[in-house]
Design goal:
Elements (H helix, E strand, L loop, with lengths): L1 E6 L5 H8 L5 E7 L23 H10 L6 E5 L9 H10 L2 E4 L4 H14 L3 E6 L5 E7 L6 H7 L35 H20 L13 E5 L13 E4 L21 H14 L4
Parallel strand pairs: 1-2, 1-4, 2-3, 4-5
Antiparallel strand pairs: 5-6, 6-7, 7-8
Helix pairs in contact: 1-6, 4-7
The chain binds zinc ion.
């Protein structure tokens, strides 16, 4: 019996959810997803062309019911940051055993992180790099490094840096610390599926360890798998890089877990708002 809380059932999130729900230990799933299925989604998604125009959350539920009729599915067809729905979202997080983040934007990832830390839940995050050149899988447990620690370690760009430029200066993902410019290019379904499979494997591994999440240690906190050789970015295709990310005293979200760190929900909200402001969101 395990309850998952997943944000995002787009092209990256849906294959993760599908893989996870084949595991009979999972009995409940809460899904947050506001989007409607569009024609341009068909190329990379599990859902058929005939599903265009329907809610992705409803389609995900249908997909799961046809494979796991015993699974309890709860839908929250809203944006994770929707202020009006925060009480429902908090309730679903409180009830879950594990969070799965397949959100495609930084504010949602930071918000997800805040929710998980506030309720003391372990969670995982999968990210496919632009163009499908590789991808990341990260895992988080209460008391461990937060998403802010990881983003800081990997020198993630702020949203202001996410400006499309004609000739992109590619980041060297395997050498965190350099200047990063990122352009969003679509990834192939095969690349998305490869990272989704890794994301699901790490999530199932963490689920097995959920009684003692602090003892979970696959040898990395962040796994990067390259899928293509890209000059100045990745020397080799199909090469894993395992990053151990420690809690950082410089982290503006968790401050490395110092005793003075924001602990109440209100203080965490303030820290989160400050982080989002730095991202240029508000
Ligand atoms: Zn942190």
């Amino acid at each position: 019996m395990a309850h998952l809380f997943q944000v995002g059932v787009g092209s990256g999130g849906m294959p993760v959810l599908d893989l996870l729900c084949r595991d009979s230990r999972i009995s409940h799933v809460s899904i947050v997803e506001p989007d409607v299925y569009k024609e341009h989604n068909v190329e990379r998604h599990l859902f058929p062309l005939s599903a265009v125009g329907k809610s992705k959350a409803v389609l995900a539920e249908q997909w799961l019911r046809e494979r796991r009729p015993d699974l309890h599915v709860r839908l929250l067809p809203c944006d994770l940051l929707d202020r009006e729905r925060q009480a429902e979202i908090e309730e679903a997080v409180r009830a879950c055993d594990l969070g799965i983040c397949a959100a495609d934007n930084e504010p949602a990832k930071f918000h997800f992180d805040a929710l998980m830390r506030r309720h003391g839940k372990p969670w995982t995050l999968g990210e496919v790099l632009s163009g499908g050149i590789g991808g990341f899988v990260h895992w988080f447990v209460p008391g461990g490094p937060c998403y802010g620690c990881v983003a800081g370690h990997l020198q993630r760009p702020t949203s202001a840096d996410y400006v499309a430029v004609e000739k992109p200066q590619s980041p060297d993902y395997s050498q965190p610390g350099g200047v990063v410019h990122e352009v969003r290019l679509p990834a192939s379904k095969a690349a998305i599926q490869a990272i989704a499979s890794l994301h699901a494997l790490v999530t199932l591994d963490l689920l097995t360890a959920r009684e003692k999440p602090q003892s979970y240690d696959p040898g990395f906190t962040t796994l990067l798998l390259t899928l293509q050789r890209v000059p100045d970015v990745f020397e080799e295709a199909f090469r894993p890089y395992r990053f151990r990310v420690a809690r950082s005293p410089q982290c503006l979200i968790c401050q490395g877990g110092r005793p003075s760190t924001a602990q109440t929900a209100e203080e965490l909200d303030v820290a989160l708002d400050q982080a989002l402001a730095r991202l240029g969101n508000e």
